[in-house]
Amino acid sequence: MEFYPGFDISPQQEPFGFCYGKGVFGPEAEIRRLDDIRASLEDPGCAGPEAVYSISMDVGMEEDREEIEKRNLLYGAVTYAAGTLGREPVRSQGHIHAVSISCGSSTPEVYEIWDGRAIIYMQESGEDDPGACYAIYAGPGDVVIVPPYWVHATVNGGANRPMTFGAWCVRDYGFEYGQVRAHGGIAYFPYVEDGGICWRENPAYRCHGLTERGPREYTEFGIRRGVPVYAQFREQRDRFDFVTRPQDYQHLWEGFRP
What we know:
This protein is mainly beta. It is built from six helices and 20 strands. One of its GO terms (cellular component) is cytoplasm.
């Protein structure tokens, strides 16, 4: 991979999933298939790779496992297939993080791109007015934070090759798809044109424009650029408490912009 995630894990295509090195734990990967996400694509009847992405929730080093669980954290790894879904790049369908019983709040997610190119799409709301909408273009080593209650979807920004990332989230995670599916997808559909990614408004929303840019630094969260977020957890065990207890960091979420 182009960026070392801080422990010995690597994506594999056959079988589609991950390979774990010595001292690393992780489950058998779950496969998300094209039929699972059709309802949220601009063209639900499109052709594309049958296996869209593979996800392994709860990975890490055995020596850290107890501490990760104690803090109610979970580290996930995801690898996306190359190719397109009709005219759209390979992507997830879009969801909101459900309110977690452990904290009584929707929770954020901390993405770190390991290989390939990603676009983290976000919109403030799943209502008819989606609020502010962003497409954050990220490459290996870049970090992107999705705040609580926001709709988000992950896009493979390089259609000709796979893309892989890791993410910190809460252990008792859950996803809400209802609002996104009721609108037939996210507020802006990505599509591949002339080797790049363009965007088209979803007419089911009252859109106000899409902001496209690269990732920023998250100094307010104490995150350092270029250092794996898994390694940053090992250095300071409470660094990602804002993921599991977002209600205690309300001052950071007010006016948050990705």
